[in-house]
Amino acid sequence: MKTLFITLSVILFTNILFDKPFQIPKGTAPRLDGVFTAGEWSDALEQDLVNGGKVYLKHDTENLYVGVRGNTGKQGWAHVYVPVNEQIMIFHASAALGTAIYNKDATDVWQAQQEFTWAVRDTSFSQKAVNERQTFYEKTNWVANTCNMGEKQFLEFKINRKYLAPKQIHIAVMFASNAKEPHFFPGTLKDDCLAEQLIYGSTPKDLKFDQSQWCNIKFSKK
Predict the structure, then answer these.
(1) Cβ-count burial of 155 within 10 angstroms (0-12 exposed, 13-18 middle, 19+ buried)?
(2) What does the pLDDT read at residue 222?
(3) What one-character DSSP code corresponds to residue 210?
(4) What CA–CA distance (Å, rounded) separates 98 from 115?
């Protein structure tokens, strides 16, 4: 068991160090209800969050699915960071969903273009709530459950692959029950993805992001 752990750790470190893409397997679409079902995510790539917890990654022909599971025993929220058309998008799922957008200036500092605005608070699966989530997805190209649904520390994201554009991209993931103690992936992450104010759900005016610290992913055909 110890040998296996060391081997997997070496593979993880080597992938990130040399920017070798993680192959994201093709799988079935999960139900975004905040309930972790092993079979539902057994076809995903599973990785550890630094400070505890797990992240699960898979895709189908239309979407990237990201499952973020905390182990704090407390209600938590999550961010998924993705680059889109020279911008960085921050998808925030807590008691509501929101998107912040950052553009890079001439000094390589990322300036806030769009602040978080909050939507999709209904935790039910009524037709009205289902329609609201679908409308949010069609407008923003992503959707997730909120932290008031299911286990309250498992966030399931659906992100439109067409929105991501390139077949090979960098992403980062964060989970928190306490903004001062974030759980994150990959382990090389040290930039402002972990800025306390941002984790709280505020939109700082300027931040420094370094995508070379993020996880390089590629969509597998299998």
Answers:
(1) buried
(2) 79
(3) -
(4) 9
